Amino acid sequence: MLNWLKKPYFFITSIKFNLILSLIISVFIFLFLYVFQPFGMFDMQQQNVLLYCFGFGVVTFLVQNFMFLVLPKLLKKTFKDESWTVWKNILFFMTLISLISVFNWLYNNQMQIVDDNSSLLTFSQITSYTFTIGVFPVFIFTFIAERYCREKREKVSNEIMKQKSSKIILKKEKQVTIFGTNKEENISFYLTDLIYITSQGNYASFFLNSDDGIKEHILRNTLTNINSDLDSFSNIIRCHKSYIINSNHINSIAGNARGYFLTSLLTTKQIPVSRKYNKEKLQDLLI
Asked: Global pTM?
């Protein structure tokens, strides 16, 4: 169980996907409450039940949008794709359910449409009801999604590795110079020494091979500018929003539930690949 909780997982940042997901869940909550009318709703007048249930759906929709769209913007480091795991995903959804419970309780206390012979639900009742509806689907979905995505990417990775061809690294015959945003600082290196580049806020870190091992060189510039400067070299590829690689140094590809990642014999770093890459594009990173 502990090993499973530590496994890599993914957090979907697509605004469109999260809006649709929030809408689907909210509609489900509304329909579930209105159709089955649990928790003493039979005591209400019929028109009041409709508004009452619809309000819970609206609350659920708004809280989800805050958690899915706003919170990741406020806590970028926490939601960093490379460090997202199964336990973080479960904790995220437990927090989501807790917030929905709190706001459902606040909404419930503000409702004025409950009949005189009905009683408002307590906080403990609303919390227990919300968790009863939400906890098991979270665990089941996370388990199925982690296994499905991991096995699918492992299969694709193995297929690509079977087609992998041997690489011949050229001699140090091409030297390039990249300038910083201030046009004063710069870094010069042989293209064959470049392993990968990663972003560090407003700075970029160049990892270069040398006789003394891998050396990191930092330059103030964006990956977008650097990628544009190196665009004429077919083996230099931006494989992720935070990484540029020299495909000549990439030796293997593997996958897990979070996505695909590349490795090189020159470094222990696992370089992530954007999830937009299909099988054909993944092969270009390796062959």
From this structure: 0.78
